[in-house]
Amino acid sequence: MSRQAFGSLRLLPSGRYQVRYRHNGERHNAPVTFTTKNAAREFLKRTEREIAAGTWRSAAEDAAEREAVAAARAAADAEAARRGTPFGTFAERWIGHRYNAAGKPLAATTRAEYERLLRGPLAPLADLPVSSIDLATVQDWRAAQLSGGKVTQTARAYALLRSILSDAVHRGLLAEAPRPIRGAAGATTGKRVAPPTADELATILDTLPERLRAFALVAAYGGLRSGELRELRRGDVELTGGDVVLHVRRGVTHAGGRAVVGGPKTAAGVRDVLLPEVAARPLRAYMAEHVPINADALLWPAADGVSHLRQSTIARHWQRAREAAGRPDLPLHALRHYTASHYSAAGATSREVADRLGQASEGIALRYTHSTGREADLVAAMDAAARRA
To answer: What domain of life does the native source organism fall in (predicted)?
Structure first.
């Protein structure tokens, strides 16, 4: 131990020097040790001068101040990073961590659709900081999109944009979400899907390849979605006596170049569908001739007989058939409208129509129902009922 006029020095076993000193009755150690005695003495002299000048701070105070400064700087940097996060970067992260109402990751097709909207209609917003997106920005973006005639796509993109910005508010990246634009998320082209007439459906069936006729009949009288039909397997078809019941439990979509099998579009899509004879009889005949006696065999596979039939393949044949029927406006989806309309005309309630289509909402199911040309018969029945009353 070497005592100095102020403080003391101690040679440690390591060969380094430790500095000790007292101030206000408390003993302090220098925050570091020194390689030479001169360096240790210089530290003591400097410390003595700081105490005399009133600028001295203890090592603990210095460390606390450094930590506080570092924390403040880190918080400021993080805040700046958050405020400056580009919309595209945040949106990609949002999709990657998004879960559905059941707590499961997004379906592959939903993810693919969101990514398509980000690359397409939402691309002009990609480089903007999330914090800068306000109502005027959204209005200008929407007007530019609608000017190109993409009404439905713009509505879908706007709905996605609102969801992403809502989460940005929750995460503190945006002060408040832009005020909703009334009707923007539900905009449509105004084109009403009209199902085929009985004669048009007959022409379509005659024009389709033989292997797709039963497919179209089941779609028209069973109300199944295309993905549900393309995933149907022999084991999903119950043949009891003269009845044919389809056990709808799955659907298929294509994303990223591969088939993705999952549950139906909605929980209500899990259902059993009893087919009328007009569709049941042709389906029985088709299965007897074309579907292997194997519970896992697809009813309508691709040309290789094993993989799933693609929607694009059906669309190619459907386009030729609908043109032959004089209905170039007719989407394949119109066959679900055909089911709903005729099921309703046969006396089904709106709930029963929704159940057959696999829709949770009766309101949505009602959109599928259309006039079947029975107005005169219905009015006559009303007259008869009035006379009996």
So the answer is: Bacteria
